[in-house]
Amino acid sequence: MSSNETKLQDVLKSRGIDIAQVDEQLEAEIPEAKESSKKLMETYYTLKVTADMEVPYWYNRSWWENDGELIEVRRARAMGAALSHMTPTIQPYEKIVMNKTKNVRGGFPFPWTTSSFFLAQADALMAEVDAPAENEADAVSIVGAGGGNVTKSYGNIISLAKKFGMRKEEIPVLVKTSEPWRGISIEDISDKYSRTLPGYGQYRDLMDSVVCMFDSFAIAQGREVSNYYVPLEYGFDRILEICDEKMAEVMGEAGDDGILGMSRGYYYAAMKEIVMGLSKWCENYSRQAAYLASVETDPELKANYEKIKEVMHNIAHKKPANFWEAIQMTVCCHLGVTNEDAMSGLSIGRLGQVLQPYYEHDIREGIMTDEEVIEILELYRIKITCIECFASAGVSGGVLSGNTFNNLSMGGLNKEGLTAVVPLEYLIIEAGMRNRTPQPTLSVLYDEKTPEDFLMKAASCTKLGLGYPAWMNNQGGMNYMLDNYGPEGMNLEDARAWCLGGCLESSPGCFQPLHFDGKVTWVPGGASPTCGTGVHFLAMPKILELVLTNGVDKRTGKRVYPAHNKNLDSFEAVYEQWKQYMNDSILILNKVNNIQMDVWRKYLMPAVNSLLKPDCFRKGQHLGTMGARYNASINVESCGTITLINSLASIKKNVYDDKKFTIEEMTDAMINNFGFKTAYETGVFSPDFRESTENSPKYEKIFAACVNAPKYGNAIPYVDQLLKTYEYDMYEMVHSYNSYYGKPLYLCQISVSTHGPQGFITLGTADSRLAGTTYSDGSLSAAPGTDKNGLYALFESATVYDHGIHQNSQMNLKLHPSAVKGLNGTRKLLDVVRAYMRKGGFHVQFNIVDSKTLRSAQVTPDKYRDLMIRVAGFTQYWCEIGKPIQDEVIFRTQYDEA
Fold first, then answer.
1. Are 511 and 494 in contact (CB under 8 A)?
2. Which residues are within 8 A (CB) of 472 and not within 5 positions of it... i.e. 6 or more apart?
3. All structural domains of the chain with their residue ranges
4. Which in 219, 250, 795, 823 has the greatest CB count within 10 A?
């Protein structure tokens, strides 16, 4: 024990305080969730993820009835019909209402986006045979079999996409709804024109080998930040009036824009359609609440239904007048956007700062107490957790792990450059500590101006082992905004409005003047379209493997790249060929994705989302025609950064510097998995398990050399310089390509869950990772078990380059709960975060859980139904995550000291 610790104990003892009481004080003071939250969570835990055809039916009906209508109006009218005809479901004890579908955990197909999957499913189901996988990514993606996932068909329930259950009697509706889109869905049309590209065959090879994880049309929107300003400022009735005023002003007038000027009138006509749909949707809930109140005998429940009736009627027409109405309005708009497309990563943004004026008003006027606000926030968490994304297994399982990344950011700076932290954000954290749900995930925009007590509150939440809040460097995010969006006019004020879209996609924002309670409050919100829909997850270690195998995938025997036929007689030759294959990949994938997204924005332009973005509404242009303020928002997503860097370090050290082996011998060892069984054979997907074969002695020396090669995360310049070179090379490479908006691409460094399936399809790698096991997670997390010198050496390695040059970086850490025990532990955790931020790190997040608990939960998941862990940018229930990702999380390096 140090002298300082002894002195602290003496001081506390002199005051009659036991040090053990200090250690336990914080944890003991967290109140339980409200009774309403408990009751609704009990229901949630019993629910299965359900697909139904109500929304597709009404969308289809309206779409085909309006054949020949202007496409913007036709799309908005179809979405409005779908929303306004949805059956309203209100559970007892709810205060915040509305769902994606009539089912609490519900989703629905989007055959107008991708018809082949649903047609194949429908044809197979009608013939009562198993449906084929949509693509290779589906085949290698594993969905968690616990919780609400319906991974297998049973009884009268059919499993779709290894996750959603649909009743057999709805299959004919799926068939009838999907059939009209055969050959004319976004998938079909974009594929038709993609086939005209000279490199189309290369594109197919990349997709079939899972070097690239999925196409852009699969989740066209999301990875962006919502903006609730327009409905909060005006209300739906006033928005309809403004649309009429704007139509009278601009209809038939091109203004100074001969290309898009005329479309302004059509935009406002479309906005009228979608606003009427949103308003009717709210009124339907008001009527349902009125009916439930009329038949309810319990006085408390009856009063609650009456309140819901009032709130829903008011927001169906007027701007919100109080906190309850304001947060319900944001839920309505948020769900409206998530229903436009198969949606993931529609982030909530800095909600506390947006709703702070309503909170202040209600507290001052005695309308609500803090405890009543916390209850609303607890119930809000449940509502957001229920959002599902209906997509293929490769997306829902292989990428999302069932999460939809509705990120709520806190902190940062306000328009004037002062701390943006507001009192409501303390309550948002408190609600997250009491009612522990996966969504919304919370993120702190760490700034040196952030109040210390708020940082401690956030750290005390993180240490509970919930996986949130994660921590982002606010100054780093602002630097990225100014660099990337400066050419579009980004200034310092707007840079301060940034936050996270999706799990970790830095997204631009802007401040808008909200008039409420007799004053003007400048509130932040999203100012761009999707900040993610570009090239979706390149398996970089797999590409290195293909360099060594001359472009042939030895796992499948198929050629992925044209043979380079190079001698590879130097490390530089290997690295340069890797860059060439990367360039080849981005070139064709970007062209195809540009076609996909261009077709999407022409036929399925966002309606609700184009209403919400203030610049779209001001200019009369939807998101697809660059109505947003900032449009340089499309990325290239990478996977397996540190597996790649460690592999390059091993090749450089063992083959070229020390000349222990030839590159041919290294390649042979990789192809033969160093003499061990593969993860496909053992069913274990983390590197802590190896089962030898008769070939093990042959590769023993080369495997040992690969194990002992220098590894990232230990402050070793030899390997860290490779990371630095890679990061700056990627900046130059990615920025040389343009998106469908005609703006340069940028690098997005997150793994989400793709390090599972993309690791699955990759042979053994030169860093000693075995075939089929997961890649290293995130982008700057050390490969499990390889960081030997502690946290601060890891931070030293991670910050050898400027994190502000890319959209993000991602570091996941696992701490034992004892490392952050008590008030002192909270301070230690905050010190870890602060140390990384001050060195220039962009992001860090924590799993604070004992690995023994995770192993036990893997064996008996039913006993751990509410156990949550952090994967890579998001929190999810352990039992709903596939085994490859579970294995990876278990084997992450666990630090016993913070």
1. yes
2. 409, 443, 444, 445, 446, 500, 842, 843
3. 48-182, 221-230+336-528+810-897, 236-318
4. 219
Q: Beta partners for 166?
A: 158
Which tens digit of pLDDT belongs to each residue from 41-59?
Answer: 999 988 888 888 999 999 9
Q: State which amino acid sits at residue 568.
A: L
Q: Where are the alpha helices (DSSP H) in 169-235?
A: 171-178, 186-194, 200-208, 229-234
- How far is the first Cα of the chain from the last one, in angstroms, to the nearest whole number? 16
Residue with tokens 């003496």: 10
Helix 540-548 with 641-650: angle, nearest 10 deg: 30
Paired residues of 895 in beta bridges: 815
Tokens 């080849």 belong to residue: 584
Task: Name the one residue in this structure whose structure tokens are 């290997």.
Answer: 574
User: Residue 537 corresponds to which tokens in the numbers above?
Assistant: 């997850």
Confidence of residue 402 (pLDDT cuts 50, 70, 90): low
Residue type (1 letter), 196: T
A 10 A CB-CB count for 409 gives 33
State the DSSP H helix or E strand holding residue 165, giving kind and residue range, or none if neither.
Answer: strand 164-167
The CATH number assigned to the domain with range 221-230+336-528+810-897 reads: 3.20.70.20
User: For residue 641, how many C-alpha atoms fall within 13 Å in the half-sphere facing its CB?
Assistant: 29
- Residue burial 94-116, b: 16+ Cβ < 10 Å; e: rest: bbbbbbbbebbbbbbbbbbbbbb
Give me the catalytic one of 505, 637, 727, 888.
Answer: 505
Residue 320 preceded by cis peptide, ω within 30: no
CA atoms of 263 and 255, how far apart (whole Å)? 11
Active site residue 639: no
pLDDT digit string (tens) for 191-241? 999 999 999 999 999 999 999 988 988 888 999 999 999 999 999 999 999
Chain-centroid distance, C-alpha 555: 30
Which amino acid, one-letter code, is at 643? T
Query: Is 282 one of the catalytic residues?
Result: no
- Among candidate residues 503, 531, 706, 748, the one labeled active-site is 503
**Which positions ≥6 away from 11 have C-beta within 8 Å?**
none
**Separation between Cα atoms, residue 331 and residue 328, nearest integer Å:** 5
